[in-house]
Amino acid sequence: MTYASPTYVEETRLGFRFLATHTWQHHVLRVAINDLKRLLGEPLPRGGVLLDAGCGQGKSFRLLQAAFAPDRMIGLDADPHSLTLSRAEAEREDIAAELIASDCARIDLPDASVDVLFCHQTFHHLVEQECALGEFWRVLKPGGWLLFAESTKAYIDSWVIRWFFRHPMHVQKSADGYLAMLRAQGFVFDDANVSLPYLWWSRAKDFGLLERWGLRAPPPPGQREETLVNVAARKPAQA
């Protein structure tokens, strides 16, 4: 199979199938979009052009359509099989999504052509992260929003994720590392635009079972290694 990115890291069969499960759609994707909406605050940006960078199998389309009602929705992925499934998902949900085979590090869209860029659990798959973030900056309009939701190295480097999934390990970052990368690119956000969810599925050592059984309380922020980071970041209007 030919991918749109020369540095594409092919997912395992199990990983690919997981992206179609109820767990992914309900406990990962839906929860992240709801959290990003909260970080944006009211009123939510609506209309305009929304780009789903790393759209995978298109399971985000219905939720993004409901939240942001874009005039134009674009799904981008480097994997042609994922785009085939995204097309079927869009047709099933009756959503007019345009799909492009493209590398996040070389996005085939004009400068300043996107109002909202949604990047959910995509960045830890990318080898050329700095280039991809530069492309996000380029295609976003001044004043546009980057909705960034990512797993950190603490999760991606856990034994269970290494065993069942495949990622470029040398580029994984901490939550602080991702926040610093966004700021270095020029994106602006404050504490109210950032969250550090500590969700059961992101705690690969025990998936939160000890807490469910009442054997221990979850460590508070500042006393744990963060596994997730969500950010609603803006490209300044005068950028």
TrEMBL record:
Q: In Gene Ontology terms, what is a biological process of this protein?
A: methylation
Methyltransferase type domain residues are: 51-148
| Molecular function terms from GO | methyltransferase activity
Q: Which InterPro entries match?
A: Methyltransf_11, Methyltransf_Superfamily, SAM-dependent_MTases_sf, UbiE/COQ5_MeTrFase_CS
Source species, domain of life: Bacteria
Cite a single Pfam family from the UniProt record.
Methyltransf_11
**Entry keyword set:** Methyltransferase, S-adenosyl-L-methionine, Transferase
- What is the protein name stated in its UniProt record? Methyltransferase domain-containing protein
From which organism does this entry originate?
Rhodanobacter hydrolyticus
